[in-house]
Specification:
single chain, alpha+beta, two-stranded antiparallel sheet, about 35% helix
Length: about 170
């Protein structure tokens, strides 16, 4: 049986390879949030949770709940946007997660929630063929506003158009 340690290559001897690895490791987090790989984002989310836990005095169970919420949000691509996460390249850390809100229950427990973006209402002008085939009524505008929508009056017909849910 041969000695297994004789087949091991020592990469620490190659100094240029060591410098390349160190340079890559030091610049890994110096990218915009939306350019970071998933593993690096998870690392920054863990750091954010730990810092918030220290600042706010969160219990371990609250920290775990927050990290779970943020991880699921990352998987659902809610936190992929650079608009939803304020990330500082110089400090290499998350400064703020914009849709994140904290609630404190009557028992003193801190609960976290991510607010989802609301659907935007888009107004589209009907073509003349669609306007003549549609019934003319102002009742549609009253129904739309009663249901919490916004009605657009395009001449003699009322139209409610919303963008599809994301």
């Amino acid at each position: 049986m041969s000695d297994a340690s004789a087949n091991i290559i020592d990469f620490s001897v190659n100094e240029s390879l060591q410098r390349l690895i160190e340079a890559e490791a030091s610049s890994a987090f110096k990218k915009p949030w939306h350019r970071l790989e998933r593993g690096l984002r998870l690392n920054r989310l863990r750091l954010f949770v730990n810092e918030m836990g220290e600042r706010r005095g969160l219990k371990d169970s609250e920290r775990v709940a927050l990290l779970t919420l943020l991880t699921k949000a990352l998987d659902k691509k809610i936190l992929n946007s650079k608009l939803s996460v304020e990330y500082d390249l110089e400090q290499e850390k998350i400064l703020e997660i914009k849709p994140l809100v904290m609630h404190q229950s009557s028992t003193g427990e801190v609960l976290f929630q991510l607010l989802e973006k609301r659907n935007a209402v888009t107004f589209r002008k009907r073509t003349s063929a669609a306007a003549t085939s549609a019934p003319t009524s102002s009742a549609g505008a009253e129904t739309a506003t009663a249901q919490g929508g916004v009605a657009a009056d395009t001449g003699d017909t009322a139209t409610l158009v919303t963008s599809p849910a994301q």
